[in-house]
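Sample pair:
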Amino acid sequence: MPTTVTINGVTANTPFYIFVCNDPITQCLYITEILNTPTYPIQFDIPSPYDTLGTYNIKIVDDDGCIKTQTLTV
């Protein structure tokens, strides 16, 4: 059963980029680019090989290079 991530809001300059990273953050997988004002919620499944991890990080990088991370535990 896949792990689905739901993002209900982001304060960032568009475009912004969403990544899933291991914990601690040493490697990240690109998920998507949000070009314009997004429609919430944003949902996606954690891709392999990170779908088997108990803890992972969601990383968002905006157009100004600002980085926000959130650690999630399944």
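The chain has no helices and six strands.
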